[in-house]
Write a structure and sequence with these properties.
Layout (H helix, E strand, L loop, with lengths): L7 H21 L2 E2 L2 E2 L1 H6 L6 E5 L3 H6 L6 E2 L2 H4 L6 H10 L7 E5 L6 H11 L7 E4 L2 H7 L30 H8 L5 E5 L3 H4 L15 E3 L15 H10 L7 E5 L6 H11 L5 E3 L3 H7 L15 E2 L1 H7 L2 H5 L5 E5 L3 H6 L5 E3 L2 H6 L4 H8 L9 E5 L6 H12 L4 E5 L3 H6 L36 E2 L11 E5 L12 E4 L15 H11 L6 E5 L3 H13 L5 E4 L2
Parallel strand pairs: 2-6, 3-4, 3-5, 5-6, 7-8, 7-9, 9-10, 11-15, 12-13, 12-14, 14-15, 16-20, 17-18, 17-19, 19-20
Antiparallel strand pairs: 1-2
Helix pairs in contact: 6-11, 18-21
């Protein structure tokens, strides 16, 4: 019998120790937060401590599923809350016991698995035991891994019991309604597609979306192979949309299922601290007997109509100092004299155009003319959204006007409603008595907003690359370096100067090649034409739009 070398036992001991120490590391290989890879699941397919749940439809499960997976069809069983005893019974029937790892999957790139994840988390299963298979069944098959049609035998009954609900995981209608009016501190993150969001799909009694909702379709969270995008990529999307970690993010959709994907991504992939899901979503919102508002545009308040202006610009409102409206009539002086809206201030469009690069001089004109920077400036051109009203909108917003909008009705429509049309010029001067309705002159402070009007495309850098939008009927004389798409501003307007329906505008922009994620720079030989497209982009909720003044 040969002798063992002097250091032989020591060497064997070290190797064995290393193998023991590496086992926990190998066990976590393929786990990223609450995502597991197909390679991890393959290695743990027959692990007694792993429960595999197929959250896709019963038909899909019957056709093929991962060996050992149990079926849970959300659309068959529903997502409504059930008595806790029934929930416990169901979870126990899946073999769920404390400490077991639960892996959920669907077809990949969708939201059934994340909705099941949400339910399990809500009913108190620790997140350290909950996982979603990244890429789902699609990624599993792409890796050449086995599937079966054979149903999985019922496992041994588990011992899970509900001890405490994670109530903070969801939000109900009253609190959600309050949050919708406070977009500074709350984000209403909608998981639906543009066709639904902008009213192309008429699913409920009214088309569109909940006011102030920010659209982030579920599909935007996934890579082409149906795996989740990296946390860095998703965070980039959120930054572009103006969503901050310090805000409360309330995910919703049509019925509380699709919203689970964004809930999962923000809370469990990005660790955003204040994320909640609204199970009732649009279905509960539109069913409310108060007939809560529903929008198709993202910023409909940029367009004002006769009914709104009649209320907020009335004599009574002005007499008691309630009205906070400055009406800026950009028509030529001759047209203004023939008839104008009550209390309108005539500042012809040429004034804005000739001072496009001299905002200080423009401010010296606006203040004495009665335009109050702390009010909402309503721009009137007589023909809705025109290149004249759009340029005035752009300049006022650039100079720091608190709010700016465009009056989209004509003076004829105003008169048809039986409302007064003024002939005498609005008096601008100090109010001499309590009932004096003169518009007081002001000093217009320039609170310059950078980045929205640029002279050189190199001056700004957005979260995503630049795309130039040629906004006139013809391509501008001066070309731009980079991606250029052509969207004549007239294509986005109806004959009366009102913007086309949101669903139609979206289709036009997509067909022209305007991407959802980009730094969009509108340009034209006439800056007013570019300003129209700028307003339309704001109306549709594009967060990074600007005008190039050449």
């Amino acid at each position: 019998m040969s002798k063992v070398p002097k250091y032989g036992f020591f060497f064997v001991f070290v190797v064995a120790s290393c193998l023991i120490l590496t086992q926990p590391l190998m066990a976590t290989d393929g786990i990223k937060g609450n995502l597991v890879s197909v390679s991890w699941l393959e290695k743990n397919l027959r692990n007694a401590d792993v429960v595999i749940l197929d959250a896709s439809s019963s038909q899909s499960y019957t056709a093929k599923h991962i060996p050992g997976a149990l079926s849970y069809d959300i659309f068959t069983y529903g997502v409504q809350e059930m008595p806790m005893a029934e929930i416990e019974k169901r979870y126990q029937s899946w073999g769920i016991s404390p400490g077991k790892k639960i892996v959920m999957y669907d077809q990949g790139g969708t939201y059934m698995a994340t909705r099941l994840f949400f339910s399990l988390y809500y009913y108190g299963i620790p997140p350290k035991d909950l996982f979603v298979l990244d890429g789902g069944l699609s990624k599993w098959q792409e890796a050449g891994l086995p599937v079966t049609k054979e149903p999985t035998p019922a496992p041994k009954k588990g011992s899970f019991t509900i001890k405490k609900l994670n109530e903070d995981a969801k939000i109900e209608l009253p609190e959600f309604l309050n949050a919708s009016g406070d977009p500074r501190n709350n984000v209403l993150l909608e998981a639906l597609e543009p066709g639904w969001h902008f009213g192309g799909l008429h699913i409920f009694s009214r088309p569109g979306h909940i006011p102030n909702a920010i659209m982030l379709p579920t599909a935007d969270l996934y890579n082409p192979d149906k795996t989740f995008k990296s946390p860095e990529e998703i965070r980039k999307i959120l930054t572009y949309l103006g969503i901050r970690p310090d805000q409360q993010v309330l995910t919703h959709c049509g019925g509380g299922i699709a919203a689970s994907a964004s809930y999962f991504a923000l809370k469990f992939l990005l660790d955003y601290p204040k994320v909640r899901l609204y199970p009732g979503s649009q279905l509960e919102w539109v069913s409310d007997q108060r007939e809560l508002p529903f929008w198709t545009y993202d910023a409909p308040f940029l367009m004002r109509e006769t009914g709104w202006l009649q209320g907020w610009n009335g004599r009574m409102m002005r007499m008691y100092g309630i009205s906070q409206v400055s009406i800026v009539d950009v028509r030529p002086a001759d047209a203004y004299k023939l008839g104008h809206l009550p209390f309108a201030l005539n500042i012809p469009s040429d004034v804005f155009k000739s001072n496009i690069n001299n905002v200080d001089k423009l401010a010296e004109i606006l203040g004495p003319a009665g335009v109050n920077a702390s009010h909402e400036a309503v721009i009137f051109s007589g023909a809705g959204l025109t290149k004249e009203s759009a340029l005035a909108f752009l300049m006022l917003e650039r100079m720091g006007q608190k709010k700016v909008s465009v009056f989209i009705d004509s003076i004829e429509k105003w008169a048809q409603r039986g409302l007064d049309v003024a002939k005498e010029a609005t008096v601008v001067g100090p109010q001499k008595a309590p009932q004096d309705l003169s518009v007081p002159p002001t000093t217009f402070p320039v609170n310059f907003r950078k980045g929205m009007v640029i002279a050189d495309p190199k001056d700004t850098h957005g979260v995503y690359p630049k795309v130039f939008i040629a906004s006139g009927k013809n391509m501008p004389a001066k070309a731009q370096d980079g991606t250029v798409v052509h969207v004549p501003y007239t294509d986005l307007l109806n004959a009366d100067g009102t913007p086309k329906a949101a669903k139609d505008i979206w289709n036009i922009l997509v067909k022209a090649g305007v991407p959802r994620y980009a730094e969009l720079v509108c340009f034209s030989d006439d800056p007013g034409e570019a300003a129209v497209n700028y307003i339309i982009l704001k109306l549709m909720g594009y967060p990074d739009a600007k005008v190039l003044v050449m």
